[in-house]
Amino acid sequence: MNTTHLNIISKRVQARQCGAAVVEFALLLILLLIIVAGVVEFGRTFWYYDALTKATRDGARFLSNARESSTVAINASHIDMAKTMVANAATLAQVPGFNSGQVTVTCDTACGANPTYITVSIGYPVTIGSWIPFVTLVGAPWDATLSPYTTMRYMR
Fold first, then answer.
1. Does residue 147 contact residue 48 with C-beta atoms inside 8 Å?
2. Which of 37, 42, 41 lies closest to 134, judged by CA?
C-alpha cells in the first residue's frame, strides 16, 4: 500500500474514534447530571432540616424562660408566641410553605404547672425530586417528613 491509502485509512479510524468519544461523553454526561441533581436535591432537604432545627431551638429557648407568675409557668399566649417565632425563623430561612400550624409544643407535665421539660417539634413534608425534575428519571419523587425537635429544661 502506498502512503496515500494509509493516510485515508488513518483519517477514517480517527473519525470513528472521535465519534465514539462523543457518544461516551454523552452517556457519562447524563449520569453526571443525575448525580449532581441528586446532590442538589438532598442538599436542599438538609438545608431545610437544619433551618427547622434552629427554629425549634429558638422556640424551646423562649419557652424555657417564659413565666406568667409564680404559680403559672407557661400559658397559651406563650405557646402561640413560640409557634409564631418558629414560623418566622423558618420563613426567614426560606423554607417554603411553612406555617405555625406545623409546630407542636409539649411538656412532660401540664405546661401551665411548672413543667420540667419543654419540647418544640415540627412535622414538615418535603418532596425530594420536586426542584430538579429529572431526578425522577431514577425513580419517582420521594415524599418525606422532616421531624426536627428540641427539648429543653424549664428554668424555674
1. no
2. 37
Distance CA 11, CA 5 (A): 10
Question: What would the pLDDT profile of 36-93 be if each residue is shown by its tens digit?
Answer: 888 888 898 999 999 999 999 999 999 988 876 666 678 888 899 999 999 999 999 9
Cα–Cα distance, 106 to 88 (Å, whole number): 20
Give Cα separations from 18 to 12, 13, 102 (angstroms). 10, 9, 56
Whose cell is 419523587? That residue is 141
Q: Name the residue ranges covered by the structural domains of the chain.
A: 40-153
Cell numbers representing residue 13 in the block: 479510524
Residue found under cell 465519534: 19
Fill in the amino acid letter for 17.
Q
Compute the distance between CA of residue 39 and CA of residue 1 in angstroms, rounded to an integer. Answer: 55
Angle at 22 between CA 19 and CA 23, to 5 degrees: 90
CB atoms within 10 A of CB 73: 23
Query: What tens digit of pLDDT does each residue of 99-114 get?
Result: 999 999 998 887 777 7
pTM of the model: 0.77
Let me know if 105 is exposed, middle or buried by CB neighbors in 10 A (0-12, 13-18, 19+).
Answer: buried
